From TrEMBL:
<dbReference type="GO" id="GO:0016791">
    <property type="term" value="F:phosphatase activity"/>
</dbReference>
<dbReference type="GO" id="GO:0005737">
    <property type="term" value="C:cytoplasm"/>
</dbReference>
<dbReference type="InterPro" id="IPR050275">
    <property type="entry name" value="PGM_Phosphatase"/>
</dbReference>
<protein>
    <submittedName>
        <fullName>Phosphoglycerate mutase</fullName>
    </submittedName>
</protein>
<dbReference type="InterPro" id="IPR013078">
    <property type="entry name" value="His_Pase_superF_clade-1"/>
</dbReference>
<dbReference type="InterPro" id="IPR029033">
    <property type="entry name" value="His_PPase_superfam"/>
</dbReference>
<dbReference type="Pfam" id="PF00300">
    <property type="entry name" value="His_Phos_1"/>
</dbReference>
Length: 220
């Protein structure tokens, strides 16, 4: 039986000239470059379909930047965008601040830095993994119900939830250096399921050539 695949697509670049750690704040839209990245993702999934993939289910975080990233894929593959709160960005106590490194030198914020392994400044890594994996399992089931064995789903989410889900899938520790995440803008992290068993993880960067010109602020 062919594996069912759930692709975790990170959103494209956001228009953020003030370099705000935007977290779950509303109305942060894709930049023009981010829209190009979203189109690249749509082309990547369209090419998969041309090569025989059956992508039949599309889910997005409710945040504006994720919804806008999902739109070209929805149009290209004629899919409805299903919104799922479980794949939203991680909570972060520094949300809304710009120049976060400067704020970290302020003693008033030091209490939030006491445990980087949790992390103490935001939503626990384990909580993120649990909610994203639950959403991925539901997406797997929905894809199989619509397309049968070997069907595929796409979930548009955010860097940190995707990255810690991959770490968990690969049985690696969840705490990490945010600068070393392998989850670039508009990248695709693919979870492959053999029935209910998670059998493997793939990763690719359809917008690799656009990344040198992109602004990219580590999240939570």
């Amino acid at each position: 039986m062919p594996p069912t695949t759930v692709h975790l697509l990170r959103h494209g670049e956001v228009h953020n000239p003030d370099r705000v750690l935007y977290g779950r704040l509303p109305e942060f839209h894709l930049s023009e470059l981010g829209r190009q990245m979203a189109q690249r993702a749509a082309e990547y999934f369209t090419e998969r379909v041309r090569n025989g993939a059956n992508i039949c289910y599309l889910v997005s975080s409710p945040l504006t930047r994720a919804q806008e990233t999902a739109e070209p894929t929805a149009a290209a593959l004629k899919l409805e965008i299903v919104t799922d709160e479980r794949i939203i960005e991680a909570e972060n106590r520094f949300e809304g601040l710009s120049d976060v490194k400067r704020h970290l030198r302020d003693p008033r914020h030091w209490m939030y830095l006491r445990n980087p392994m949790r992390p103490s400044w935001g939503e626990a890594y384990t909580a993120q993994v649990l909610r994203v994996m639950a959403a991925a399992e539901d997406a797997r089931k929905a894809a199989e119900e619509r397309g049968g064995p070997g069907a595929e789903a796409v979930m548009v989410s955010h860097q940190l939830p995707i990255w810690v889900t991959r770490l968990a899938a690969e049985s690696r520790r969840l705490w990490h250096d945010p600068r070393r995440r392998q989850c670039t803008l508009a990248s695709v992290t693919s979870l492959k399921f053999d029935g209910e068993h998670l059998a493997g993880v793939d990763y690719c960067e359809p917008s690799a050539d656009l990344l040198p010109g992109a602004a990219n602020i580590p999240g939570a």
